[in-house]
Amino acid sequence: MKFAAPLLRSAAAVLAIAVAVPLAAQDAATPAAEASTTYPETPEGAKAWLAAVEAEYAAFSVEYGHVSWINATYLNHDSDTLAAKYGAELTLKQVAFANEAARYARVAGLDAETARKLDMLRNSISLPAPNRPGAAEELNDIATRLGSAYGRGKGTLNGQPINGSDIEAEMGNLERTPEELKEMWASWHDNVGAPMRSDYARMSALANEGAKELGFADFGAMWRSGYDMPPEQFAAETERMWQEVKPLYTALHTYVRRKLNEKYGDAVQSRTGPIRADLLGNMWAQEWGNIYPLVAPAGAGDIGYDLTDLIAKKNLDAIGMTKVGEQFFSSLGFAPLPATFWERSQFVKPADREVVCHASAWNIDNVDDLRIKMCIKPNADDFITIHHELGHNYYQRAYNKQDMLHLNGANDGFHEAIGDMIALSITPEYLVQIDMLDPKDVPSADKDIGLLLRQAMDKVAFLPFGLLLDRYRWGLYDGSIPEAATNTGWNDLRLEYQGIVPPVPRDAAGFDAGGKYHIAGNVSYTRYFLARLLQFQFYKAACDTAGWKGPLHRCSIYGNKDVGAKLNAMLEMGASKPWPDALEAFTGERQMNGTAMVEYFAPLMKWLEEQNKGEVAGW
Fold it and tell me: Of 602, 300, 310, which Cα lies nearest the Cα of 428?
């Protein structure tokens, strides 16, 4: 579930290998790239250059958007060729503009907004190549090899090869034995991660060099500089947020560990200490929902209704389900979606061609050519996903009057958090309000623990992994994790933050981190940590505005136009102001925090504390 990234961040999705085009290839590639001969190195010159960049991006983005849409909805050789051509052209622009932005960023007397836009441009490159002959080509080659190695990667199951997508599914198969889980876990990390190590080290060194040329201390500092505060302050803020929710995670960890001990015995999983990584239903132990049946409290399975059944009883097809989602936003006071949304979106998988089914939300012209791309099936998961994706669409439309460089969420966690907040709002009370659920079928309070535990197995369990993935890379980039500790540093952080350990001893010369796509693919991960917390912060603010008095997890904001007005005030800001300003517009707070998540899961925390009496907490 995602939205089609704004122009500055979308090249990787279309042409992942075009991360570092040689500067020599940029000969007059873009008018704004010829800045040195047209715009002087003065505050006024910098502003004029930025205006030219935004105009150039605006003109390019519409055509690029159409090409990208065609490629996603008509997968064939010709659409791939067009997407590659436009992706390469965009990358040329990004590299040229980032290097020029770095030059203008050194000009004295810049106003705050000009400096901020220059930083946005400096941060627009996924992998910054050093400006010397051969470096960009080398970086491209390495990135291509890493991506291909991951895509081709295989583990084994009972001695037979098994590909990445199948191994993910089998790690969540409760019929698999601990020995089978151990084999899959170890073989994946040995076969896929370990061979990447030398390439990854070289890629990191080159990216570090390129980031320093753009004016950053290192590549990690470049990533952290996109949050309207000094990089070191952002690192401290994320750690503060983690400490706020850590007691909830620790309580969940303690309970799940006991249940796994009861299932497998001391020889497989001890009742104390860390949890074996392969027993949690996911290759990376990042979400634990697949093992919910092993830990569910007695009687938690029956909640009194099934959302998929309710959809069937209402005879809702893909369009009908999307109309229900639109109705949610209309009830908050948002204008209806444009007629073109219904004409141009992909709601179901076409029978005559291959398409990308992964759900996403688009604004092709950056005004109101809004679309979703899904292959909707009449089930509960897709009903929730529709609400999530429409959250992206309404956000996109709300900020469509902003400057080109501000057509984005306030920070990279905001867009996903908005969609997730809307998805949290699909409560039994909401289903009653839209006449999908009979009031007598609303689950009683005794079902809440099971519902909250199931949510926590994904949303709470994810938090430490969401944080440590980038923390690990920051350590590699700044040298606090030396190359000799590449593998031990990864497993040490996983023990520290997640309380998990590998099922077999690890070779210090390995590279277990390479077994995660976002490492091999060089995708920053902190945004997902932020989104997991922000969604609850937004949800609580909405419920407070609505005057909700019951348990937070049962709140429904459907039909509350005061909530809609406050939400729109934040959405329409886009990235035009530092994110604390946008956060304050909706929540009244200027700090992201985890306290709303703690409140949401408070009934579960109380129950976990009862269940954990006599257990050794933590690891």
Answer: 310
User: Which tens digit of pLDDT belongs to each residue from 433-451?
Assistant: 999 999 998 888 878 898 8
Q: Smallest Cα–Cα separation from 514: which of 139, 126, 199, 162? A: 199
Q: For residue 82, what are its two tokens?
A: 């067009």
Can you spell out the DSSP letters for 214-270? TT-SSHHHHHHTTSSS-HHHHHHHHHHHHHHHHHHHHHHHHHHHHHHHHHH-TTTS-
Stretch among 76-80, 491-495, 560-564, 600-604 having the lowest mean pLDDT = 76-80
Give me the percent of the chain exceeding a pLDDT of 90: 76
pLDDT digits (tens, 9 = 90+) for 238-289: 999 999 999 999 999 999 999 999 999 999 999 999 999 999 999 999 999 9
The SS3 of residue 155 is strand
Nearest to 611 by CA among 304, 245, 262, 172: 262
CA distance 163 to 155: 6
Mean pLDDT of 188-194: 96
- The helix/strand/coil state of 283 is coil
Q: Pull the structure tokens for residue 162.
A: 């098994």
| Cβ-contact 409, 576 below 8 angstroms | no
Report yes or no: 597 and 541 within 8 Å, Cβ to Cβ.
no
Pairing of strands 2-3, 360-363: parallel
The sign one gets for the Cα dihedral 494, 495, 497, 500 is: positive
Sign of the torsion angle spanned by Cα atoms 210, 216, 217, 219: negative
Strand ranges inside 331-483, DSSP E: 360-363, 370-373
Q: Is residue 249 within 8 Å of 461, Cβ to Cβ?
A: yes
**Strand, coil or helix: 183:** helix
CB count within 10 Å of CB 141 equals: 15
* pLDDT tens digits for range 363-402: 999 999 999 999 999 998 899 999 999 999 999 999 999 9
Reported for 548-554, long-range contacts at CB under 8 A and 24+ positions apart, including other chains, are 551/448, 551/602, 551/603, 552/596, 552/599, 552/600, 552/602, 553/427, 553/448, 553/451, 553/452, 553/600, 553/601, 553/603, 554/427, 554/428, 554/429, 554/448
3-state secondary structure of 303: coil
Distance CA 119, CA 234 (A): 15
Q: From residue 534, how far is each of 49, 410, 524, 600 by CA, in Å?
A: 35, 12, 17, 12
357 backbone dihedrals φ, ψ, rounded to 5°:
-85, -20
Task: Tell me how far apart the alpha carbons of residues 422 and 370 are, in angstroms, rounded to a whole number.
Answer: 18
Classify 161 as helix, strand or coil: strand
Please give the angle made by the CA atoms of 447, 451 and 457, to the nearest 5 degrees: 145
**How many C-beta atoms lie closer than 10 Å to residue 299's C-beta?**
10
Largest Cα separation within the chain, whole Å, is 73
SS3 content of the chain, % helix, strand, coil (to 5): 60, 5, 35
Which of these, 349, 341, 337, 397, lies nearest to 371 by C-alpha position?
A: 341
